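Proteins fold reproducibly. Take a sample protein:
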Amino acid sequence: MLTSTHKPSDIRIFHKEAKTLANQHDVAVIAPDDDLRELHQSGVRVITVKKAKNKVFHFLTLWRVFKAALRQKWDIIHCHEPDSLVVGLFLRSLKGGKVVYDVHEHWPSEISYGWLKVKRSRSIKKVIEGLSWFIEGGMAKLSDCVIAVSNSVAERFRRDGVNVVIIPNVPFLPETLPKGRKDCDIVLMGGGLQEYHGVKELFSAFVEVKGIVPAVSLKVIGDVKMDIGKLLLELGIKNNVILTGYLDLDKMYSEIGKGRLGVVLFKAEFHNAYLGLPNKLFDYMLCGLPVIASDFPEIRRVVSSVKSGILVDPENVNEIARAIVYLLENPAKAKKMGIRGRRLIERRMNWSKIGSVLTEAYRTIRPSNPFIPFRIPDQKLLSREGR
């Protein structure tokens, strides 16, 4: 497995995919990190390369990933970004093997907005995204298998005739589900929280809710990339908000389980956010929380299927506040939403179920001409979820 941007311990890459595949295959993950090391962990060999200190020198990270991979032997090269896919296809041309492309994001919009910071000029944005898709789509056609995180992300590849295996970022099923005393009303959880996660809108809605439910409380779980302290002081809600910082998985689930509802308020500032299917949505549902979530295609597909929450316009503060008040004032209905969400995760949308789709995809990859892609049929399990 090659990644040029994710951490060696990335949940999807290492904890889900690599560890699952290691039950049947010899697996190595090559990833950038601040510390250079090679170790065996959970049946997976982890090889780190030096990460460039600045994005301007990202090409150095990519070169180090290539050199580390070239020293290995492989049957399959599993790539997690467009640039690592470039490396994978080149390695295949040198030493053979099969290439799997794992699409976590809508990369054209992620590159223009997240990497190049093009936010205002529509014409420049359109050119960058068009060029990015032309390159990415062409490379996907040369791959032996394409995996996507959601139906919406897969759709653009399907339009070009590429069959795609859908493997969403569903959670693991813990041995015991979190229980215990509720110590807060609202939970906001995420990694690297910033403006497009709807933080300002949630806090503004929280002020309105506080006028109706004075004792309401909010817990923010995870690291924050914006000046959240200043915002809390400006709105006068600092005493009602708990900041936990980063937590490991077990502790994270324990803290989520102490809340009464979870919020996912991604804003459509760029297409990748609009098409996203956030991990936190499934995490809230696993812990039995009803959700208040952005009314976007993939989120709507999940929440509406079992009526596990309320869909809102993530930029409408009044709508968000009304949804929060409704769930707080109707605890019986909120509890039923949470139960329905947890039931979906327990029965169908967990890694024990979805991991088998990945192993089946690997089993199906057969010898073919390196530059004529072999197409894997869409998985019936997830196509049912997609409808």
About this structure: The chain is about 45% helix and 15% strand. The chain has two domains: 11-170+352-381, 186-347. The first strand starts at residue 27 and ends at 33.
